[in-house]
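Can you please make up a protein's amino acid sequence together with its fold in token form to help me picture the idea?
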Amino acid sequence: MSKGPGVAQRKILLLILGGIMLSLSNSPKGYFRTIRKIRQDWKKINKQTIRNLYQSRLIDVRENSDDTVTIILTEEGKKKALTYKIEDIEIKKPKRWDGKWRVVVFDIPEKSKQAREAFRYHLKNLQFHEFQKSVFVHPFDCKDEVDYIVEFYDIRKFVRFIIAESIDNGLHLEKIYGL
């Protein structure tokens, strides 16, 4: 990502947003999925990352009298966290297409089938065209959105992002996207 919080910082923002999501959750499935993801990601966070978030003014850190620390999302942090609410991610359509195709290729193992299916669901939800079962294409800049979903499901080592100048059936894809 260019300018803004890095991957680890987005994970912390996700965890904080996860707390908000837990309080708003209507389904037990969503509730337990959020708890499981928070638990997994929390193990990866260190004090330096929290310090970086504090310096970027996305969180406020308060030390309590009982030697615990309270992390509070600032207004700027809330705006940033909410922009990454996974179900509401969308790819912005520019005024003019740059003529490049964004290709997402993945090979997520069977043991991570749920993550694979969720990833495929999100790509389709973002209007990616399913080129093959594990190859999706989109005409607009979407690296940040794809990176966010990849980090959310912890599938970085199984996913590749390619920017291509041409695809042999590009005219067909252009018709699909109305370009």
Remarks:
- Strands lie at 59-63, 69-73, 101-106, 129-132, 135-138, 159-164.
- DSSP finds seven helices and six strands in the chain.
- The domain at 101-177 is CATH 3.30.70.240 (Alpha-Beta Plaits).
